[in-house]
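Worked example 3 (structure in, sequence out).
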């Protein structure tokens, strides 16, 4: 017999539940609350049977607990845009938020359109910034992204100083191994310790050795990566529609659930492009109508099969249904 899990919703709709409760096979009850720790609980004894309490699957627990961490950190450390500096730590995996030492990116937003990122050289460097899109807006997506997406969280100045002093869990540097008539172009990466990996047609990273030419242009990296994914996951006809998914980060393209959008073209006609959204189904997507067939910096597109599109719809519907049930709404 395994443990059971429950969510205790707030009576009024908000971003996060009051607690996630775990009941062990022997009946012991513990809860992860806004204190950001598991501890003894009697929440089910006091609130069991109320409409704000319902059971969830073990697979959903980590995502809801992570959202509690993100939301509480926002309460503690985030100031309204324009009223001071916010510092955000970025984690490659949502579960990493429980260990601040796994932060791989630091960004500080001064609230005036100026933003800086901490570099492996030990210095802060200005990054492109849209004054109308504060870092906090990107952070909010962490609460409403899909369950396997990366996450950003606000941190304190003291935590930032500690991470700067000890160093981050730096992400690898991506590059492209150029192709020729005998060799396909490949996406590769170099880790901080100098180790090299190449992304293969089996859709996995494998160690390799390379002392030849490297291409570092981001667009070429994206194309090489997507070409590899498409070779490893070939697409056959989707019947009356051509299906594709769009990613914010092309290196997420081997995980369909990380796709930002699902798009289909009836009879392959871009003028009739449609986009799928939870609870709305298929709708006209004017953003896609003007796209051309060439991949760009802003268009990490991957063609997929109808079966893959159906699986994406199923997974996103399940996750969106859970979020509406927990928070009372789908988005901010």
């Amino acid at each position: 017999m395994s443990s059971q899990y429950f969510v205790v919703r707030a009576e009024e709709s908000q971003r996060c539940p009051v607690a996630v409760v775990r009941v062990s096979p022997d009946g012991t009850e513990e809860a992860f609350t806004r204190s950001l720790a598991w501890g003894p609980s009697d929440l089910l004894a006091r609130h069991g049977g109320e409409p704000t309490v319902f059971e969830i699957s073990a697979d959903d627990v980590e995502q809801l607990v992570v959202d509690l961490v993100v939301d509480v950190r926002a309460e503690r450390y985030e100031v309204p845009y324009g009223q001071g500096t916010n510092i955000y730590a970025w984690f490659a995996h949502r579960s990493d938020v429980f260990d601040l030492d796994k932060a791989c990116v630091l960004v500080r937003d001064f609230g005036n359109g100026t933003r800086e990122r901490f570099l492996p050289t030990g210095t802060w460097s200005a990054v492109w910034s849209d004054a109308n899109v504060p870092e906090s807006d990107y952070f909010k997506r962490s609460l409403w992204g899909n369950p396997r997406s990366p996450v950003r969280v606000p941190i304190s100045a003291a935590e930032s100083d500690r991470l700067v002093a000890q160093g981050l869990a730096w992400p690898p540097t991506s590059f492209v191994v150029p192709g020729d008539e005998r060799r396909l172009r490949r996406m590769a990466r170099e880790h901080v310790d100098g180790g090299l990996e190449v992304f293969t047609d089996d859709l996995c990273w494998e160690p390799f050795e390379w002392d030849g030419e490297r291409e570092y242009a981001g667009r070429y990296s994206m194309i090489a990566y997507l070409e590899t994914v498409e070779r490893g996951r070939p697409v056959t006809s989707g019947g009356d529609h051509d299906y594709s998914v769009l990613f914010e980060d092309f290196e997420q393209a081997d995980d369909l659930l990380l796709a930002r959008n699902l798009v289909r073209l009836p009879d392959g006609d871009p003028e009739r492009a449609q986009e799928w959204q939870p609870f709305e189904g298929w709708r006209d997507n004017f953003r896609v109508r003007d796209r051309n067939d060439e991949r760009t910096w802003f268009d990490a597109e991957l063609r997929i099969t109808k079966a893959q599109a159906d699986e994406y719809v199923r997974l996103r519907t399940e996750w969106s249904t859970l979020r509406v049930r927990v928070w009372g709404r789908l988005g901010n």
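Notes: Helices lie at 43-47, 58-77, 135-144, 157-166, 218-232, 286-289, 306-327. DSSP finds seven helices and 19 strands in the chain.
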